[in-house]
Every structure is written in structure tokens, then in C-alpha cells.
Write a structure and sequence with these properties.
The complex is a heterodimer of chains A (about 300) and B (about 475). By secondary structure, chain A is α/β, with parallel strands linked by helices. Helices cover about 50% and strands about 10% of the residues of chain A. The longest helix of chain B is centred in the first third of the chain and has 35 residues. Chain B is globular.
């Protein structure tokens, strides 16, 4: 039994070592999705305009457009799949290592209110960055498994699939992934779905109602308070989504009115592009919820110019 | 409950600990309770069916033994077979019968779409049925205790996907478990680790390539379809033999040595050899209770060949209510008979065994495509494109890469190579191992295997393929 114990301990120790090697490799990525997470959560990444939100923030707001329109430095930490509580967490986690920006642009839309009971979307991608205390605390509130993920290697490893091992190998070899070069100052364009077209995606849409959970005003106020405490000016933006999707969210106008009312009551500037002509232009969209690269650049140009007007 | 689930990782050590603390009859009472808990974890109602089958066969076994005259004994046996096959017919083929009936009467609105077959139904009904047949054949005496018999039918390590145990092998071991010494402990741990590796790192990784191709075969060219078919050969073997390895390893902790179910069948050099190494417990079950029942080889030569063919056809149909399974069985039956005739005429292949191996793998791949295809139409697409020989290596590579990227594809290749290398090592390496091998190399291999399992395993996968057969 002594032999069994020795080999068990050895296996466990090696498992922790392998995990650390993989995490380090992921963090070593110089460009792309994982470099962006490192910059956002582990490094000092100063900027003047910080874009936060879900995948629409991540894939719709192209920072160089803001840089050239405003003369300020912009960084995008929108996280795909993030709902409001997690968006607040990413913002706080960013502030752990980076100085407060002058402006925070929060992209608000129907997904912000969607509150799926399951875990954080693509949660294993945050594993290598849990040294950020705010991230660890915030994410643990959303997903109770995270303390275990952090400390128990045999528990976290099964979730860390080949996608991340591939990223670790790229990190060590210095090679770039297929889409790494598309990531610019945190902006990550949404690519069209591989096996279907926009038309097919639109056909697959179904009517749904998005209820506004009770905690939403408190979460919005939480973000506002973080901003006020650091003299950051908070602005909201509603970026375009395809009109077909809008038509299928039966209470879409109610959601938008809620944002408008909240912004009005709290004196937060709202940039509303929910009725932009881009919403009906198929050429701008990768799928009904997301603009494609061309669409996002077009939108960013418009929004950045409006934003530049506002800060002048 | 699945072996590859967190709940089993808690269930197994807890049950083992309590079982070891108990003594005498309490051990088997507890193991019976644990087995029913294991079985009813997902669908509690299915345990009622298991209990009912058990009670019927226990009662019928006693009645056969008590019957004085052969006709009475036969009546009881027929009742047992009818009940067991009836349960199979209703719960496994019920949806097929119902839907066919509805379609005949033109009522297509009431078709059953999502029919859930109780896990391991065929395995435990076959196991239970073999008990009554063995009593009828005077090979076994009836069990006196219902608890013991229920444990024989439901012993959790092999309940859902075999091996299909015989009463004469399993029951004595459940009554007098073998001691767990250090050698058995390490053998069991190695087997469990390798079983998990085969399931999680090999079978489930290959499934990422197999499933999309079989879902839409018309999207792919011939060579891609053939490669996907070969991947399925390895997947189904790794999946099913992985389950058996875990089951065998777990059973050893309870002092039970389950029968050998797989003997490296993918290294066979002929179909006849393949069927002596593949899913042995089920193959011997069909041999002993169906093939011999049909008359076996003690009859005229055409009848003997017909018996062989029918056995394969029925074993195909046993897998499920689909023509593709029957076709798979028929292909094996035909080639098995052709092999017999060829060997009779020309003698067995003694040289060029590698040619036999390639023949076996090719035939096995082509026949398993029939097994996995979702319809006869899909199967037609497979065969038409494969046998058009319009193969493009580069295009096949890109089609496979497109499915799941280059890294997982390379890993799938590596996993297949590792599986064959390990099996070849077991097949051809000398029995006597060096001390360095035993004390260092082999344990380190399994340490690395655990690391690879956690690193490269596909943990999001589903249940074992054979659960619903």
C-alpha cells in the first residue's frame, strides 16, 4: 500500500504541475483572446475609454475608431456571454491592476437582462487568470464551483479542454492562432457561423420574452457607484442588433424603455442605435445578434464620432 | 449511474468501504441495495422492471427444478423465455411495433418519437434467462435465496453493459469473495485507469469526428466516410471494452473476477478469430443458448450453415429495431460462412498474417458502417461514395480538420496509435517481465496515462454506447 500512496501522491503532484504549465502557456499568448484576458485581468493596461459589456461590446466596438475620433486611448473588455453581474465583475477585475479610465462605455441590450441560471459562459477560459482577486470573488458568486476550480487540479482539469491546451502550446511556441490577429485592443470580431448562413439563423429564431430580473437596477447602480468613486464618466450604448431578432423579442421595446428611463433618472448619457438603419442591413451582420467585422467597423465609426462630439 | 460521472466517484469508494466493514449475509444485502441504487439513479421506475424479471425467473427456476416430468419442465422454461423475450419486445422494440401498427392504420399523429429503453435491458434479461435455461438443462441447481439471485442479476459493475455473466461463474464468487491482496489491487487499478482512458480519451475524442459525419454523410466524400467508419470501429471498441475494463476492475474490489469479455479483437486476422475475441460473453451466450438451441453443428451441413447465419442475423436484430443492424448481422454471417468454406478448400492462412489483419479491419469497418448508419438511405450514401473510389486524400484531410480543427484531429490519430501499440505490446511481448518494468516502467506508464486522461480527455461526453442495446 506504500507503493500505491507514493504513486498517488506523485500523480497528484504531476497533475498540479501540468496544470500550471498549461496555464502559464495560455497566459504567454502574445496576441488574441488569451492575451486580451491577460491584459484585462493581470496586467496594467491603462486606457482613457473602457468598453464593457457582453459579446456585442466585445465584437461591435472597434477601439482604433475611438482612438482616432477622440484622440484618447481605448480598450475593450466586453466578454461574450456575460450578463450584468458578470460584466460588473469584469470591470472591477480590470481595475485591480489598471488605473481608472476617464470614460466607461457600457453596452446594454436584451442579453444584459438575460439571466440564465447556469454558469459563466466559457468559464474555463478564466481559469488561468484567477490570481486576480476581484475576478475570483465575482466569478465565484456566479458559479460556486470556482473555489474548487482554483485549488483542486483534478476537478478543474477535465473542463480545460484541448482548445486551451492548443492555446498553451501556441503560447510557448509563440505561434499565432487562426483568429488571434483579428483581436485589436480587446476588440474581437464575431465571425459568421461555419455551417449556416445569416438567413438560416434568422429562420431559426423563435419568439421569446426577456424578463428584467429584480437585481438589474442594483447591478447597474453598482457599476455607476464604482465609476463615481473613481471619477469615471459612465455612458450607455445600445448597439445595433438585426431587426429580425428585435422582432422576435416580444418585449424588446419595454427593455429599451427600461434602459432609457434608468439612464434618464441617473443622468447617464445613452447612445441609442437600436433604430439605426444598420439594423436592417444584412451585410453588417454575422448572425442576428452580432455584427460582423465590416458592420462593427461601420458602427464604431458612427458611434466614435458621436462620442467624440459628446466629450467635446 | 455512469462510471464516468462524479456521482460514481463518490458512490464506489463509499460502497466499497461499507461493504468491507460488513460481514456475512449483510454484505450481500448491502451490495444488492447498492446495485439497485446504482441502477435506479437516473430512472427509478426501471428498477421495478429489473425486480419483476428477477422475481419471475427466480420463481420459474424453482418450478423447473420441482417439476417431475420433462413436459412440465419445458412449459416452465417456455414461460421464462416468453416473459424475458416479451419484456425485451415491449421495452426495446415496443416503439417499432407501435409505430408500424399506427402507420398501417394511417394514424401518423400518434407515433412514438422519444422511446427510452431501460439501460442494460438486454444484458440482465439474457443473464437471467441463461439461469433458467441452465436449470432446465440440468447444468445448475436453483438458487434458494431470492436475495442472492437478485444480486446475481443486478451486481452493479456489470449490470448495464455486461459482461453477461453465468450463474455458475458469478454466484459462487458473490457468496465467497476472493481476498483483495496487493497484486489484485494494482491489477484492478491499472485496469480501471486504462478503461477510463479508453472511454474518455479515445472513444469520446473520436466521437467528435464520427458523429457529425454519420449525421450528414452526403456532405462528405468517400475517403472521409471510410476514415470516419474506421474511427467508429476504434470508438465503439474503446467505449465498450473500456466499460468492461472498469467493470472488471471494480468487481475485483468486491472479490469477484468477471469473465474475460475482450481479447484484443482488433488484432484478429480473420473473422472467425475475431468472434473468439470480441464481446466474448455475448458471443458465447448466443452460441450456447441460440446457436446450439437451433441445432448447432449436429445436423446436416446446409442446416449447420443456416444455423450460423441465423445466429448472426438474430444477434444483429438484438442490437435494435433497424434494418441496418440486421444487415450488419447478415454481412458477418455471410463472410463467416465464406471463411469456413475458403479454409476448408485452401487451409488456414499461416503466412501473410498482416494481410488477414488488413482484411479483417477493412471488413469490420465496412460492416460497422452499416451498424452505425442512421438509415438504409444513409448506408447507401456511405457505400456508394466509398466504392466509387473517387478518393481525395487532401480533401478528406480538410473535411476532417474542418470538423474539429487540426489539434484534436492529430490527438485522435495519436490516441488510436497508442491503443494499437498497447494492445500489440500485450499480444506479442513475452509473459515474463523484468523487475524494472514491474516496479518502475509500468507504474510510470499508468501515472502518465492518468495525466493524459485529465489533460486530453473529452469529459463532456455522454453515456456508454452499449447502455441501450
Amino acid at each position: 500500500m506504500k507503493r500505491a500512496l507514493i504513486y498517488s501522491v506523485l500523480t497528484l503532484a504531476l497533475l498540479y504541475a501540468v496544470r500550471e504549465v498549461l496555464y502559464t502557456g495560455v497566459r504567454k499568448n502574445k496576441q488574441g483572446e488569451f492575451a486580451r484576458l491577460r491584459q484585462a485581468f493581470l496586467e496594467k493596461t491603462p486606457c482613457d475609454i473602457l468598453i464593457i459589456g457582453s459579446s456585442r461590446a466585445e465584437g461591435h466596438c472597434y477601439p482604433p475608431a475611438f482612438d482616432s475620433a477622440t484622440g484618447l486611448k481605448t480598450f475593450n473588455i466586453g466578454m461574450s456571454g456575460a450578463t450584468l453581474p458578470f460584466i460588473a465583475t469584469t470591470f472591477e477585475a480590470y481595475l485591480e491592476n489598471s488605473p481608472p479610465p476617464q470614460y466607461v462605455v457600457l453596452n446594454v441590450d436584451w442579453h444584459t437582462f438575460d439571466h440564465p441560471p447556469d454558469t459563466v459562459y466559457l468559464f474555463p477560459r478564466y481559469f488561468p487568470y484567477l490570481a486576480n482577486k476581484k475576478l475570483q470573488e465575482g466569478i465565484s458568486k456566479r458559479d460556486a464551483r470556482f473555489p474548487l476550480f482554483k485549488y483542486v487540479a483534478p476537478y478543474s482539469m477535465p473542463y480545460f479542454g484541448t482548445r486551451y491546451i492548443n492555446a498553451a502550446i501556441r503560447g510557448y511556441t509563440g505561434k499565432l492562432g487562426q483568429y488571434d490577429t483579428t483581436v485589436v485592443q480587446g476588440y474581437t470580431p464575431v465571425l459568421p457561423p461555419v455551417r449556416s448562413s445569416l438567413k438560416q439563423e434568422i429562420t431559426a429564431l423563435y419568439n421569446r420574452e426577456v424578463t428584467i430580473p429584480k437585481h438589474i437596477p442594483a447591478e447597474l447602480l453598482r457599476i455607476k457607484k464604482i465609476c463615481e468613486a473613481r471619477n469615471i464618466i459612465l455612458v450607455f450604448v445600445i448597439s445595433p442588433i438585426h431587426e429580425a431578432l428585435t422582432a422576435h423579442i416580444t418585449n424588446h421595446e419595454t427593455l429599451l424603455q427600461f434602459v432609457r428611463n434608468f439612464a434618464g433618472a441617473e443622468r447617464i448619457r445613452l447612445f441609442d442605435y437600436s433604430n439605426s438603419e444598420m439594423c436592417s442591413d444584412d451585410a453588417c451582420f454575422a448572425d442576428p445578434s452580432h455584427m460582423n467585422r465590416m458592420g462593427s467597423r461601420r458602427f464604431s465609426h458612427v458611434f466614435a464620432n458621436d462620442f467624440a462630439q459628446y466629450i467635446r | 449511474m455512469q462510471f464516468n460521472s462524479l456521482s460514481f466517484l463518490l458512490f464506489f469508494p463509499l460502497v466499497l468501504l461499507v461493504w468491507r466493514l460488513l460481514d456475512g449475509d449483510f454484505r450481500n444485502y448491502f451490495l444488492l441495495g447498492a446495485s439497485y441504487f446504482f441502477y435506479s439513479f437516473v430512472h427509478p421506475w426501471f428498477a421495478i422492471l429489473l425486480l419483476a424479471t428477477t422475481c419471475f425467473d427466480f420463481f420459474i427456476g424453482q418450478q423447473i427444478s420441482l417439476s417431475a416430468t420433462p413436459p412440465t419442465r419445458k412449459k416452465w422454461l417456455v414461460l421464462s423465455v416468453a416473459i424475458n423475450l416479451g419484456v425485451l419486445a415491449v421495452f426495446k422494440y415496443g416503439a417499432l411495433f407501435w409505430n408500424t401498427g399506427m402507420e398501417l392504420f394511417g394514424s401518423t399523429n400518434n407515433l412514438i418519437q422519444n422511446w427510452v429503453i431501460p439501460a442494460g435491458l438486454s444484458f440482465y434479461t439474457f443473464q437471467s434467462m441463461s439461469y433458467t435455461i441452465d436449470i432446465y438443462r440440468n447444468k445448475q441447481k436453483p438458487e434458494k435465496s431470492l436475495t442472492n439471485f437478485a444480486l446475481y442479476v443486478s451486481f452493479f459493475p456489470q449490470l448495464v453493459a455486461g459482461p453477461v455473466e453465468r450463474y455458475g461463474n458469478l454466484m459462487p464468487q458473490l457468496l465467497q469473495p476472493k481476498p483483495l491482496n496487493e497484486a489484485v489491487f494494482f491489477r484492478s487499478v491499472r485496469l480501471i485507469v486504462w478503461g477510463f482512458f479508453k472511454k474518455i480519451a479515445i472513444a469520446d475524442r473520436l466521437a467528435d469526428f464520427v458523429n457529425p459525419v454519420f449525421d450528414a454523410p452526403e456532405t462528405y466524400q468517400g475517403l472521409t466516410l471510410l476514415v470516419a467508419g474506421f474511427f467508429f470501429v476504434v470508438q465503439v471498441y474503446a467505449d465498450f471494452s473500456g466499460y468492461t475494463d472498469i467493470a472488471t476492475g471494480v468487481a475485483r474490489f468486491f472479490g469477484v473476477e468477471l469473465q474475460l469479455n475482450w481479447k484484443r479483437p482488433l488484432l484478429s486476422t480473420s473473422l472467425r478469430e475475431f468472434w473468439t475475441r470480441n464481446h466474448i460473453s455475448m458471443t458465447t451466450w448466443f452460441r450456447d443458448y441460440l446457436y446450439i438451441g437451433l441445432g448447432g453443428s449436429r445436423c446436416s451441413r446446409p442446416r449447420w450453415l443456416l444455423n450460423l447465419f441465423l445466429t448472426f442475423i438474430i444477434s444483429g436484430f438484438w442490437h435494435g429495431p433497424a434494418w441496418t443492424f440486421v444487415l450488419w448481422g447478415a454481412m458477418h454471417g455471410v463472410f463467416y460462412i465464406i471463411e469456413i468454406l475458403v479454409v476448408e478448400r485452401f487451409g488456414a492462412l499461416k503466412r501473410l498474417r498482416w494481410a488477414g489483419w488488413i482484411y479483417l479491419l477493412t471488413f469490420h469497418t465496412l460492416s460497422l458502417i452499416a451498424f452505425r448508419a442512421q438509415s438504409t438511405h444513409d448506408l447507401g450514401v456511405f457505400y456508394e461514395r466509398i466504392f466509387s473510389f473517387d478518393w481525395h486524400i487532401t480533401r478528406a484531410f480538410w473535411e476532417l480538420r474542418y470538423l474539429n480543427d487540426l489539434f484534436p484531429l492529430a490527438l485522435a490519430g495519436l490516441m488510436i496509435a497508442l491503443l494499437f501499440a498497447k494492445e500489440a505490446h500485450e499480444e506479442f511481448s513475452p509473459e515474463k517481465k523484468s523487475k524494472v518494468y514491474i516496479t518502475f516502467l509500468r507504474p510510470m506508464f499508468y501515472v502518465v496515462l492518468v495525466l493524459l486522461l485529465f489533460t486530453l480527455g473529452q469529459f463532456s461526453a455522454n453515456e456508454f454506447i452499449y447502455f441501450h442495446f
